[in-house]
UniProtKB/TrEMBL annotation:
GO terms for molecular function: methylmalonate-semialdehyde dehydrogenase (acylating, NAD) activity. Keywords: NAD, Oxidoreductase. The keyword NAD applies. Pfam families: Aldedh (PF00171). It is an enzyme of class 1 (oxidoreductase). Gene3D superfamilies: Aldehyde Dehydrogenase, Chain A, domain 1, Aldehyde Dehydrogenase, Chain A, domain 2. This is methylmalonate-semialdehyde dehydrogenase (CoA acylating). PROSITE patterns: ALDEHYDE_DEHYDR_CYS.
Length: 509
């Protein structure tokens, strides 16, 4: 767990609270972890690893609240969400500053993190139409059939460090507005911005017990996946943990959606807009220090487009590495010292395996932030599919470059990769783009767009090794995930109706 042990008396910085039954409370645990600014190593807070009893109390609080919340009118739920989205919009700059301090991404990118979550929250305000059922009149003699979309109960969410605002906002607003109650476990590495959002939810009027928060590591995750009162679990994070969550939750009868790792490719055709394409590759490859599950980590140059590679290297070389709050910063630090060492180890492995290191970001220096977890933009060429750097999600500012002679070979290359989160193609040919979108076996496709994350009116649709579970974490699909369909078949008789007598056949007529 990499947690530290301390008593409350030893703590000289703020402690992150649990939220149980509507109250922000101090954990009684003896197990704590530091929340560290990755640019300075300053300890910002201490986060508790909740006890078994505290996790159980949070779940039971949610279960008790479900009895009344599920019957709360849709209009009442929507009005709370409307107030909540207004509060998030008002406090976006403050939350972004917290996020930058604890996660490391640049301030503009942190604001984007909050904003993309806000978009999902705004969509939750449309639940009045999203949760509609179906109706068919007179399907048989005087028989009507209709469906009801009803909440399922206590739902749980487990979120990653890389989007501590956006991904929690993918989860609990839609679950709650559908009539469920929720237990959230944020990343223990950067929970402060998530807690700021949670406090605003309470201010917006989310009732006691409807939203609960527990912190911790594997023990807390396992408790959420196995507790008898939890009906559904939503997860975003690494493939290893996501696979564990999916299997454990499914074995215990939960609905589970696991959005996991990726190896996203960008295909570059020679007819693409050169300047726009190179800008997009640099931005998508190195933005957020490469710590996005939708980051472009492999650029595949087709044919003559490989001649653009020196220009890409020069663009990457100009990107400014600095603390996220500093003006004009392009790339902030990675989340932790352990993450930095992992990325550096993979870069070293790439060199040993024979890839050509065109741009080396291992020894980047950031004056004034010498203790920061910084890695500069790094580019490899001559990469093969057998190399560890290709098979592994690096999750750092490292872009791999591969070359193929034809679009068909580029499609085959991508389709052989086990992941299926996102892919992009850069071209001015409609025919090539249509062929690509038809033949590529990846859940989310960008055409002249490097990070094809859909707006909330559509569903996030990663596939294959990047996703377990058949429903996405937002959009129309997530309404299906957070509700159960009840089908009602009804016949009504008036007092003057003549009985047909006993009918022992299956027909309704």
């Amino acid at each position: 767990m990499n947690a530290t042990v301390a008593t409350l008396a030893e703590q000289s910085v703020q402690t992150v609270k649990l939220l149980i039954s509507g109250e922000l409370t101090e954990s009684t645990t003896t197990e704590w972890r530091d929340v560290v600014n990755p640019a300075t190593q300053q300890v910002l807070a201490r986060v508790p690893f909740a006890t078994t009893a505290e996790v159980d109390e949070a779940i039971r609080s949610a279960h008790a609240a479900f009895a009344t919340w599920k019957n709360t009118p849709i209009g009442t739920r929507v009005r709370i969400m409307l107030k909540y989205q207004a509060l998030v919009r008002e406090h976006m700059p403050r939350i972004a500053k917290i996020l930058t301090a604890e996660q490391g991404k640049t301030l503009p990118d942190a604001e984007g993190d909050v904003f993309r979550g806000l978009e999902v929250l705004e969509h939750a305000c449309s639940v009045g139409t999203l949760q509609l059922g179906e109706f068919a009149e007179n399907v048989a003699g005087s028989v009507d059939t209709y469906t009801l979309r009803q909440p399922i109960g206590v739902c749980a969410g487990i979120t990653p460090f890389n989007f501590p605002a956006m991904i929690p906002l993918w989860m609990f607003p839609m679950a709650i507005v559908c009539g469920n109650t929720f237990v959230l476990k944020p990343s223990e590495q950067d929970p402060l911005s998530t807690m700021a959002l949670v406090e605003l939810a309470l201010e917006a009027g989310v009732p006691k017990g409807v939203l609960n928060v527990v912190h911790g590591g594997k023990d807390v995750v396992d408790a959420l996946c196995t507790h008898e009162l939890v009906r559904a679990v939503s997860f975003v994070g690494s493939t290893a943990v996501g696979t564990h969550v999916y299997r454990l939750g499914s074995e215990h009868g939960k609905r589970v959606q696991s959005m996991m790792g990726a190896k996203n490719h960008a295909i570059v055709l020679p007819d693409a807009n050169r300047e726009q394409t190179l800008n997009a590759l640099a931005g998508a490859g190195f933005g957020a220090a490469g710590q996005r599950c939708m980051a472009t980590s492999v650029a595949v140059f087709v044919g003559a487009s490989q001649q653009w590679l020196p220009e890409l290297v020069e663009k990457a070389r100009t990107l400014k590495v600095n603390a996220g709050h500093e003006p004009k910063t392009d790339i902030g630090p990675v989340i932790s010292r352990a993450a930095k060492q992992r990325v550096l180890g993979l870069i070293g492995a790439g060199v040993k395996e024979g890839a050509t290191l065109l741009l080396d970001g291992r020894n980047v220096e950031v004056p004034g932030y010498e203790d920061g977890n910084f890695i500069g933009p790094t580019i490899f060429s001559d990469v093969t599919t057998e190399m560890e750097i290709y098979k592994t999600e690096i999750f750092g500012p490292v872009l791999l470059v591969m070359t193929v002679p034809t679009l068909d070979e580029a499609i085959a290359l991508v389709n052989r990769n086990p992941f299926g989160n996102g892919v992009g193609i850069f071209t001015q040919s409609g025919a090539a783009a249509r062929k690509f979108q038809s033949e590529i076996d990846v859940g989310q496709v960008g055409i002249n767009i490097p990070i094809p994350v859909p707006v909330p009116y559509f569903s996030f649709t990663g596939s294959r090794g990047s996703k377990l579970g058949d429903l996405g974490p937002y959009g129309k699909q997530v309404v299906q995930f957070y509700t159960q369909t009840k089908t009602v078949t009804a016949r009504w008789f008036d007092d003057a109706a003549v009985s047909d007598g006993v009918n022992t056949t299956i027909s309704l007529r």
